[in-house]
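note to self: dont lose this again. the chain is below, predicted strucutre after it. 540 aa total, dont forget to put it in the shared folder this time
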Amino acid sequence: MRRALLLWLVAGSLLSAQQASTPSATVSGQVVQEPGGTPIAKVTVLLAPTNGEIAPGSRFVERLGKTAVTDSEGRFHFTSVPAGEFRVFLQKNGFLSAGRKSQQDSPTYVTVSAGQSVDGLLFRVLPAGVIRGKIVDEDGSALPGVQVSALPASGHGVAGTGVTNDVGEYRIPALTAGSYVIVARDDRAVSDQHDAEDPSSALYAPTFFPGTMDRGQAATVEVKAGEEMDAGFALSTSRTFTVHGQVSTIATSPRTGVPETLWLQRTDGAPGRVLETALQPDGSFAFDGVLPGPYRIEGRTENGEWWKPVSGTDVVEVSSDVEGLRLAPQPAGEVQGQFRMDNDKPFRWSQLTVALEGEDVQLGGALSAQVNRDGSFRIQNVPAGNYHVVVTADSNNLRDYIMKEINMNGKDVGDSGFAVGPGVSTIDIVASANGSAILGTLVDHENKTVTDMQVVCIPDEARRKRHDVYQQERTNSRGQFSFLGLNPGEYLIFALNGEDPAEITDPDFIRQHEATAQKIHLDEGERKTVTLDFSWNAEP
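---
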């Protein structure tokens, strides 16, 4: 036992000596504020190995890399850095990383050799954009406690929120540059004498800047990094309305397959809860206290049927009481399919997930299924509508694979999408390992490689409803990018200088870059190597 312990101690000493003989590196630099180049203190700098992972939006964690904090002169210093490739991340409340704005700025990729001193790195941060303002009532009196949201002018979701203080002022910080629509909502009654039992009582309606209840009439607020934009306005008041209707009498007796609950949800992005109401035994329903706006009304049964208006549109415009709205069942469909390889070789299909992406957002959740070992799949309770197939894999080893054909009734519907109605829709998916690729290097006017810049790949106009063929990637430490697993066809590729689009499938975003994009045609299985030009002076 004593001998074994002695051997272990000797081995440990040799290992420590070997580690000590490997000189560690140092990394140092400075963080300044843009514009002006003023050194900025208390910026957290993370030196993260490129072979690790950092969860989006997570706080910096020590085990993910090495961290340092800038001093009063904006300087940071890392010691005992192992050899390898790292990426630099910056974090400070109220600030955004400016990225590489000029050739003088350091790339965020850093390659460190044993014993090397990497000095003189320069990074920039800039104050985040802010939208602020004051919310008042129609008499100009301040309204505290009002929720105000910034919605991306193009795209979905909420970019940021704020709540008015005791003098009606709000502030929405940490916004990236872009166009926003501002909406305020307050569910409180206009008067203290509000009768909660009176569905026609007046409320503050969701109001878009500069003071309209119609999102189509809203003004956009253009935010640039580091700027504060004012968007103060008055909340509009409105009486509330009722939405009455009846489900189709065809299916109300007996009441099998009839939803017990119906939902009414705004479609213009204004915040607010989804209204619910119970279906009465005679098939009638009523939503009370509905504010003006566009709504989607739906109900779903246990067997997957969806009930929608028979007016030909899913959107109900409420500007007065709605009477006589009729809902009819739209029986849910089922999509079945079979995968096969174009060369008939065996494949482990269970590593794939197949999903349906609808052209219209539905209530209810994701429509997807794990593919069975034999390549078959089945997606049930699919609401009637138009869909595209999206296939994902649990392995990066399949990046060269493509869905070569998606056939329905003898026609390839991969690009056009297909309609799902009652009954079973059957599709045949032909996969191929022979995907095309674009392998590129981003260079500036001096033919120097440009690292850490976003490059976007957009399909030709005929395929732009097929969102699974869009790709976006940052150049690596050698200025390289790769778009793999592309179907044959035409593509546009371009680099973004400091721009961070919310949605690369947005038609307005594509139009802004179409004229300067590089066009590339790919045949099946073709791998093209390209050099993409980049201008430091290009406007985002």
